[in-house]
Write a structure and sequence with these properties.
single chain, alpha/beta, Metallo-beta-lactamase, Chain A, Rossmann fold, 2 domains, seven-stranded mixed beta sheet, five-stranded mixed beta sheet, 31% helix
């Protein structure tokens, strides 16, 4: 049975592939409904443009759909909005079948193109302001980097008012009815996709939204999930809301948030956490709070990490390592933007005490600002040592509020 041809606008067609069996995507995402690899074909009076390809394993469906719509000699352009393998998997074969087609990528994609294909591939670069013509169809390009790869761009088909958004506004949601008004309820998948893929790049989302704002958009055609045609501004609005909101209202009161996260085996690291929090909270302009990591859900960790201007993490040393909940906390930073946040670590220990240093190094790798070395105390803290914890918390808070110190490189 031949795969179906789905028009999404006048002379614009879905030619992608569906992956109903996939259950985990890029390791970090669950895909309970499967997913899709969306590719599109635009037919103009002077040729055809192919907008992205599909994951290599699904090339057969892609080429079957494409061949029902055009001959390879008609293809003038192949546009890749970014080069992740799930969208570029059929590229080499497509270029072999359509040797006269011109490949168009973003400027940031050049090194990725060479790394992926290990051979010279002719290409043209498109940045904001570049356009191409298919006669009666005009495609405008928009630079939208880091959504979610550095090489990502978007494009806009003027005549049909279609925004080819790349990964932005996507969902890992399989439903061959394709359109947002015909598929099942995918709202959870749309939000989950934002949280896992786009949330670390909020500032870039807001920049992209400014580029999209002047456009008259009738349809959003993303690279995964349903095509959005009923109310495109609704989806733009949700991204604007999620990328702008401050969940804990700290900005309304002119405060900065400092969060102390800890795990404690015998209440010694907890005692340190309490005094660090008290010291931090004594600084004007700071709201300091402490959290026992053994009782925090991942979603709550992510929210707290995102809203915190400073993060202090405490762990005892067990078997020469920090404990798992502390590593779980820092693993959540892959969903967030961490550059510029202040970080510090601490912990009580019995023998070697490596945990604070190990966590400190991980914070360094995450691009935290690290103004103080790790604070370690052997076994039960004395009153004098607890006073040093108070001063440690106070110092971190003062630095968070702008005190100038020499930062560790």
């Amino acid at each position: 049975m031949l795969p179906s041809i789905v028009p999404i606008a006048s002379d614009v067609y879905f030619i992608g592939a569906f992956d109903p069996k996939i259950r985990t995507f890029d390791i970090i995402m669950k895909t309970a409904n499967g997913s899709s690899y969306n590719s599109y074909l635009i037919r103009g009076s002077e040729g055809v443009a192919v907008m992205d390809t599909v994951k290599k394993e699904f090339s057969e469906a892609f080429f079957a759909r494409l061949e029902r719509l055009c001959g390879y000699e008609e293809i003038r352009y192949i546009v890749l909005h970014h080069l992740e393998p799930d969208h570029s998997g059929a590229l080499i074969e497509l270029m072999a079948r359509a040797p006269e087609a011109r490949l168009i990528i973003s400027g940031r994609a050049v090194m990725m193109l060479k790394a992926l294909f290990k051979e010279d591939v002719p290409f043209e670069i498109a940045n904001t302001g570049k356009s191409i013509s298919l006669g009666n169809k005009t495609i405008d390009f928009l630079s939208t980097p880091f959504l979610h790869w550095p090489d990502t761009m978007s494009s806009y088909l003027r005549e049909e008012k279609v925004l080819f958004s790349g990964d932005v506004f996507g969902s890992h949601y399989y439903d061959e009815r394709l359109f947002d008004d015909q598929v099942g309820d995918f709202s959870y998948a749309f939000k989950y996709y934002y949280d896992r893929i786009m949330r670390p790049f909020k500032s870039y989302v807001l920049q992209a939204l400014k580029l999209y704002e002047p456009l008259d958009i009738a349809t959003i055609a993303p690279l995964h999930g349903p095509v959005l045609r009923t109310n495109p501004r609704y989806y733009l609005g949700k991204y604007a809301q999620w990328s702008s909101e401050a969940k804990f209202r700290k900005h309304e009161f002119g405060k900065k948030m400092l969060s102390v996260f800890y795990v404690s085996s015998y209440e010694n690291t907890q005692a340190m956490a309490e005094r660090i929090t008290e010291g931090a909270d004594s600084v004007a302009g700071i709201v300091a709070s402490m959290y026992d990591l053994t009782s925090l859900e991942e979603s709550n960790m992510i929210d707290l990490l995102e809203e915190s201007d400073a993060i202090i993490v405490g762990s005892p040393t067990i078997n020469g390592d920090a404990v798992k909940p502390a590593w779980d906390l820092l693993s959540c930073m892959c969903f967030l933007e961490s550059t510029g946040k202040v970080g510090a670590t601490f912990g009580s220990y019995g023998w070697t005490g490596e945990a604070p240093e190990m966590l400190h190094e991980r914070l360094r790798g995450l691009k935290f600002r690290l103004p103080q070395p790790p604070l370690k105390i052997k076994l039960i803290p004395t009153p004098k040592e607890l006073e040093s914890c108070y001063m440690y918390g106070r110092e971190i808070a003062e630095i968070t509020m702008g005190k100038m110190v020499e930062m560790e490189l």
